[in-house]
User: Fold this.
Amino acid sequence: MDQRVQSQAPGAAAPATRFVVPVHGMTCASCVAHVEKALKGVAGVSAVAVNLATESAAIETPPLDADARRGALAALRSAIVEAGYEVPTQKIRLAIEGMTCASCVARVEKALAEVPGVLAASVNLASESATVELVSGTASARDLVRAVTAAGYEATPPQAQAAPARDDRLGLLKRDAILALALSAPLAAPMLLALAGIHVMPPAWLQWLLATPVQFWCARRFYAAAWKALRARTGNMDLLVSLGTLAAYGLSLYLWLGQDRHGHLYFEAAAIVIALVLFGRWLEARAKRQTSEAIRLLGELRPTNARVLRDGFEQVVPLDEVRVGDIVIALPGERIAVDGLLRAGTTAVDESMLTGEGLPVDRQPGDKVTGGALNTTGRIEIETTAVGAETVLARIIRLVETAQAAKAPIQRLVDRVAAVFVPVVVAIAAVTVLGWLLAGATFETALIHAVSVLVIACPCALGLATPTAIIAGTGVAAKNGILIRDAEALETARSVRVVAFDKTGTLTEGKPRVVAAHGHDLLDGREVLALAAAVSAGSTHPLASAVRAALDAHAEIAPRRAAAHKTLAGRGASARLLDDQGQATQVELLFGNRRLMQEIGLPLDADEHHAREFEAEGRTVSWLAERTPDGVHLLGLVAFGDEPKPGARAAVQRLNRLGIDTTMLSGDSAAAAAHVARALGLAHFEAGVLPREKSARVQALKQGGRVVAMVGDGINDAPALAAADVGIAMGSGTDVAIEAAGITLMRGDPRLVADAIEISRATVRKIRQNLFWAFFYNVVGIPLAALGLLSPVIAGAAMAFSSVSVVTNALLLRRFRSPPAES
Assistant:
C-alpha cells in the first residue's frame, strides 16, 4: 500500500492525500465495481480507482494530517472487508532499546503509528517490545526501525537481539550503579552523621572530585536519552533527571567558584540522586527480566539439534533441517525435538513445562508426543508431524508473547497521563522557582526545590505498573498450563460470574464406551452393534468411535457394511446398508439421539423403559432405526458410559466457593445430563442443546450484565466460546475450539478454570495496586517537593523506590500456587 502527500509550491493549495490499498478476493469486473462503490461510500473520499490486474485500489481524499490518515486508512479497510473482500495485514514485532518511562512508550507508539500503512502500534515498556499491525506490502521492518530511530530510540527485530547482548547491558548498568554508589558514599556519610549530631563535610574540592565522575560518566546514559528526546521534540524521565542533577551540580559550581566559597554545596545531592536512580534502574531491569522468565524458560525447551534416522543411520542435524515425515530419535534424558507420533519404543514423558502436569505421562506407539517435553525412560522413535513455527511449543511461545505484549483496557488512562506528564512536570518546576522567588527566597533555595520536583517525578512507575503485572500474570499462568491469548481476556476473566461447561470431553473423560446393546423385537443385541458400527464408519464422533471399538472387541460378531454416510449435526448419522456382495440395498440406517427419531416420526414407546433405565444411571442412549420403502422401523438402542473426570467435582466446588455460578450445556437427554449434574454437584444444567443452540444459551446467560465464561473442547463448541465474554478451551480439544477461545487449558483438567480466574483476579489486583502507588508517588511527592518539604536526595530515593516497588509487587504473582487436589 502506498500512502503519500504530494509536495507543493509555497502558497499553493494543499495536495490530496493518496492511498493505494491491496485488495484480495476480486475475480471479475463486478467485484471491481462493488469495491469502488464501497470505497466511495466512505466519508471524505473524493476519487477511487480499483485495478483488478494489480489487485489494488487507489483512493484520494482531501489533505489529511498523520492522525487523520490513520483513521481514514482504518475506515477504508473496514469498507473493503464489509464488502466481502480482504485487505491483507501483517504483524511485525520489534525489540526497543532506550525506553525508560511511560512518556517514552507514548513517543514510540506515535512514531510507529505515523508510518504509512500502519493500522495500530502497541509498545510495552516491561518487555521492551513493540507490536505493529500494518497493511501487507506497505512498510517494512526497516521503515519501522527508521521511525523509532528518528524518535530517539533504537529498534531491532527480536531475533536479532541476542540474550547475551541484554546480559551485557544489565552488566554495564550494574557496574555504573556500583561505581556511582561507591563515589557517592563519602558524600552521603556526612548527611547520616548529621542525624547523630556529628557535623563534618569534605572540602569542596573533594566533593567536586567525587561528584564529577558520577555526573558525567555514570550518568552519561541519561544525557544521551535526554538529547534524543529533545531532538524528537518530546520529553522523558531521563530529561527530568538530567535537568535536575545538572541544575544541582551547576549551582554547586557557581557557589564554590563564586562569592560564597564556604556556603553549603549540593554536589552530594546530584551524585546521590544519580547513584540511587542507577541502582533503581538496575534492580528494575533485573526484576523485569524475572517477570518475563516464562518466555525464556519456554524457549530453552527447544533443542538446537535433533537425532534423525536417515538411510538406516542416526545423524545429528540442526533442528531447522528436520522435515515433516522424518524419523527423530530421542534417548532417555533428552528433550524431544519435534511434534510427532511415537512409532517405536515406550517411555514416560515429562510435559510439566508445557502443561503444568507434575507427573510424567506414559506414551505408547501411536501416541502423540510434543516437542520440548522430556523423554525420561526409554529410547523412542518419532515420526515428525510438525516443525518450526507449527509445533505446539512454538504456538505456546507465540501466544504468551502476544498476551504479554498486549495492553489491558485499564492502560488507556495511563497512556493519556503519560502523553502530557513530562511537560507538566517541567512547568511545575518552573512555577516552583517563580513561586519561591516571589515569596522572598534566594535563587539557590528556589532552584533546589525545583530540582526536587524534577527528580521525584516518576513516569517510569506509571509505565511499568500494568505491563509488569500482565507479564508476570501470563507467565505464571503458562507455568500452570494456562495460556492466555491477550490482556483483555486476562482482565475480563476476573469479572466472570457464570461458568458454562460443555459435558462430553470437558466435565467427562470424553472417552465413551458401549455398556449395552439392546435389540428391538427379535433382533439380537450383537446385530444391533454390527449395524450401528456400519453407520458409524464414516464418523469421527466419540460415540461412533466407541461403537467401532466395541465391535472390534467382539471378534465373534460378523461386521456389516454401509455406504453413502452422512453426518446429521447434533442428531447422529445415516448410511445406506450394503448386502453381502457390496451392493446398495433399499435400507437406510439411522443411528442417533431421541431428536433424530422424532424427526423421522418413529415412536419409541416399545423400548422407552429400557432407555429410561440406562439414562437414570447416567448413560447416553443412541437409537438405531431403518428406513425402507415400507416405512421406518425401530431396530434397537445402544447405551454408552462416559465417566466424569477425576477433578470435575472439585472444579465445580471451587468455582462455587469463588462466588461463581456453574451450569452445564449438554446435547444429551435430560435424565443422563441430570445424573452427571448430580454427581458433580451442579445445581443447574440444560439438556438436549444442539451445537447451534449453545451460543444462544450463552447469550441468555449474559442477561442482566453477568460476565459469562464458556468451557469446551470440540468444533461444535467454537460458536459458544466466541459468544462468551471469556472462551476457555481445553488444550486436548480441537484447534477450532482453541482458536475461538481467549484462554486455553493445556491439559484437560477442569480445575484449571478456577486457576485461570484466580490468576486473572490476582493480576488485576496487582495492576490496580501498582497504578495506585504510581499515581500516589507523583500526586503526593510533587507537591511536597514544590513546597520545599523534600530534599533532592530524598526525592531521588523515592523516585527510584517507586519503580522498584511496582516491579517487585508484580513479581509477587509468581508465588501463585494451585490448591492441591482433593482426595
In short: The chain has 27 helices and 30 strands. The mean pLDDT is 82. The longest helix spans residues 751-786.
